[in-house]
Each structure stands twice: as C-alpha cells, then as structure tokens.
Write a structure and sequence with these properties.
Length: 629
Amino acid sequence: MWSLRVTPIVGLPTYTDWSQAATLPLVSGKFVILLSVRGQSAAVLGQSVLSEISATPPDSAQAVYTLLTALLKKYPEDKLSVACLLLKSDKVALGAVRASILLHRDTTTGRVLPASHEVSLRSGTSKTDDVYILLNEQGEQFVPAIEQHFAHGLIAEAVATTLVPAVQSSGNQSGTGAIALVEVIEQVVLTQEKMLSDSIEPSVSKTAVPDLVEPEPAKNAAWRSLVSQLLTSGKHRGAQLWSTVRSLKLRRNVVYVRTTLYDHWRKRALLIVGVLLAALGTVMGFWWWYNSSQTAVQTELAPLEERLAAAQQVVEDDPLAARQAAAQVVAELEVLVSTKGKQRLIGSRYTQALAQAQVVLTTLSGKVAIVELPVFYDLRLVQSEMVTTTSHLSDKKGVFIDAEKKQVVVLDLTSKQVQLHSLTELPKIQATTVTDDALFLLGEGLWQLRLTDNTQLQAITLVGDSNRAGTLLGSFGSYRYVLNPEKRNVFRYTQTADGVSEPIGWITDPLPVGYETVASLAIDGDIWFGTTSGELLRYASGKRQTVTLSGLEEAFTSSLLLATTAESPHLYVLEAGKQRVVILSKMGTFLREVRSPSLATVTSFFVDEAGGFAYLTSGSTVYQIALVI
C-alpha cells in the first residue's frame, strides 16, 4: 500500500506574499498542493482559496486540470502560483500553474513539469522511494542546491533540513520562496509470528509387549527358536543404548545454548528498534507541535496583518484613521510580544511582526527627520553678497529678492540658468509677491517688474494711506492685496489693462489678533494668515472661517510662514522656531512633517508641487525638500 510523507519549507510571510503546503486525504489516495499568493491581503486570499480546495479536493487527473484551469481563469494577474500532486494507488497526476515540479528517482534528479503561465499536467506511474519536489516561482532559485544535495546522497529529510535556513532567511530576496518535498513510501503492516517454547523436550512413548506363548511344535522348530533368541537379545541391547543416549542429554544441551544466543540478539534488536521508535515519535511529536504552533501564530497574526494592510490602503483618503489603526495594531503586537515573545521557536514571529508594524506606523505617521537638508543652489554664484529676504515661485522659476541691496535673482529650477535684476530706483522694499509673469513690490507705492522680458520697473500705484504702512503683499489673479497694520485691514486693488483701481477694505470681520503680529499670508481665493505666536487664520470674502487642526501632535507656538495655491489641496507651514515644515490638508488634517536643524535659519520658502519639491532660503543658500505624502 502506498503513502506519502510531505515536508513543507515555506519562507517567512509578508504583507503581500504568502505560501502554504497542504495534504488533503481522499477516499483512496492523497492530494498535495503548494499554494503561493502575491498582492494585497495575500494571507486572506490564500486561506480563502485553500479552504475552497479543501472542501472538494480533486480525485482524478481530469479534476486536477479543471481545478487549475479555474484558478488560472479567476486569478489571471500572476497572483497565484500552484503546484500539486494526486496519488491513487501507484498512479500519480502532477499539475502546475506558474510553478514547477522535480522528480528524484534512484540516483537521478530531473524536471518533470517546467514552470509555465499556462496549465501544465502530467500523469504516470510512481515507484516507492520516489521524491517529488514542488516549487513556486520564488523557489526556482533553490533548484541547483536541491540537485546537488541529492547527488551527494542525502535523503529527503536531510535535504529539507539544509534548505530551511536559506528559504526562511531574512536576507532572502525571494520574499516567499516555497518548496514541498513529497516522498512516496510503502506502508508496511507488521504481523507477530507464533513461537514455540525452546524448553519443550521430545517425549518417548512406551508400548506394552505381549507375553510370549510357547509355539506348538512344528516343522523347522529349531530354526525358529534361534531367530527368536536373536530378536530378544537385540531388543534388550537397543533399550540399553537408548537409556545411555538419554542420560547424556545432548539434544537438550544443544537447544539450550542456541536459545540463549537467540534471546541475547533478540533483546538487543528489540532495544534498538525501541530506541529508534522513541526517537521517531519524538521527532514526529516535535514536528506536529511545531506545525501546530506556527499555524496558531499565523492564525493570530493574520487579522493584524490584514488591518495593517487596510490602513496602508486608506492613508491617502483618511490619513488620521490610517495612523490610528496602525497604532492600535502596534499596541496589540506589543502585548503579544510581552507575553509570547520569549517562547522558543515562535517568539521571533511576534517580534518580527512588531518590527514590521512599527516600520509601517512610522511610514504612515508622516514624520521625517533629516540631519542636513540638501543644498539646491548657492546664490553667491550670481551675487557675492546676496542675502534673501523673500522668495516666490513664478512659472517654474524661483524669484529671490534681497530687499536691502535692492536686487532680484531669477533662477530656472530645471536648467539653473539665472537672471539678475536691479531695483535701485526703488526708495525701499516693504513686501513682494508674484504672478506667472511679473514681480510686484510694495515701497512708496506699488511697482511691477515683468519677468518675461527686459522691460523696466514700472510704478502702478502711487503711495497712499492704504499702502504707506503696508507690511505684506499678496496676489491672486488680477487682485493685489496689502496688509496695513495701522489701518487694521487688508486693502484689495484690481489691476486691469487700463491701470489699477482704488483700494477697498477687504476685511469685514476683524482679525482676533494684532495686525502687526501677522507674519505671512497665502492666497488661494481665501486668505490664510500665519502669526508670530503660531495662530493659523482663514478668511473668505472678508469673513473669518473656522480652522480645526487634527492629527498634529505638537501645536504651532512660534512664527509661521505659509504657502499654497488655488490648485493645491495642501497648506504648507514653515515653523522655523521648531525646525519643521508641516503639510496640512485644507480641512486641517495633518499629512506630513519634515524636521531638520537646517530649517532654524530659513527666512522664506515656496513650493513647486508640479516639480515635487519645496525650496527654502537661508541667506544665500537654497535648500530643497521632496514633497512625498
């Protein structure tokens, strides 16, 4: 009678990779399957597929082909890798999709079913001691090692032992390399033979001799008398010889010596067999316990891994909920590690799961620390004494203004070509802003400098009460905004081809803070104000709007510089006092934070979302930060 011994070797699972080998009993045989799944929630999908197969395992080669065809049709995106074996009596059917099968028979190891993205099927007759090696796509890298081990004469169990460290190594780039060694063995039924006791001796029966009767005288009487005497004498001597032989007890001694030697070797053989059976029982018990423990651990960790994967999927839509879900998973894993992390053989599974969850939580937290920001450009290459006061983005170009020396550097962010403009005719520079083609300056009136040609600086509005004490300047479409702390308002000018209109007071709800404490403003249709004490205000049509921050663990407490546009869904906040740049949604949800000591001296910044970077200036140095949410 044929049977199978299956030894699975499966790599450590990840969030997107899962493998498992299973043996399913049939009425008159067994079905072995090696299943690997790749993609989001791999463990959940793999368990679901395996449960469906376990409910109705195939019992014929045609059923194996039907099963593989259905799986290939249902999961055509390279999600599944399947290798399987059906054994009934001495007949075997092999099948694979995106997997391969090797056969080791006698002293030869070869490939009987190559890897293919289509259904592969092969049937034949198996022999005892055949070893089938089932491999998924990632397990192909171990084929040379398997062939070498069998060539050196190793048995299947020894080959499996040598492969386990390599397959489950954390440095293994295969992710979930999976192998199943299936040995065909002959099941032996032991029978006990009945043995006779060696101490039984042979017995001799005694037959009664009838009394002799004197014969009647007859012819030849003398001859008959002589024969009778000879027979009587022979019988008597035979009886004496038998008595002598019995007294020697030769037969009994010989049997006794042979029985003693036989018992000695039998006891030794029974002892050896007993030791081997005890060792085999110990190994099988350990193997059963190990598999049961690993299954229990996987059952316990799978829901947590699924929740962690779900948190990663929703981080863009709801980052706050994603972080809370990931933090809850980390907290639950910390409890498991504290209670089970020191258990032999399974404790490392919990420790590894916690480490992976902490990495995910760190990624979802949006917090990044950079020791030193990369330098994008040094403006001293253009002007040796350049000290940037304000900076802006205008049509993929950085515009850097030195208010004290009254000069402007325009830097192409792609080619790093520069233009230098002089503003010496201005009496002073109080504030600046830009549009896609022009720079606007506040200083004894409003001024305009075209950046697309070499036209001269042009005055567009004379100095007046609305702009004389202005401290900040903003632009949106054809509107120019001037913050005037003395007048406690923001004045809006409308610029047309015919000139600039008279200013109107834009604020209808007074600011809840002193106008002189406003450190910056950013306009996306609404106006955002950042103050020197960390307040963040938003006004629409001159009226104050509620701003509620969520997910920001450390509140703003120092001077804030702001940047945004109408097209951007984000608000960028530079808090140099805390050496950080914070990215918020316009609903106030925390998205990302970058901290660096380099930010302590930054005095202005702008954001190029299309290019994927923020540019920050400190003196003449321009730093660059990648915008990865």
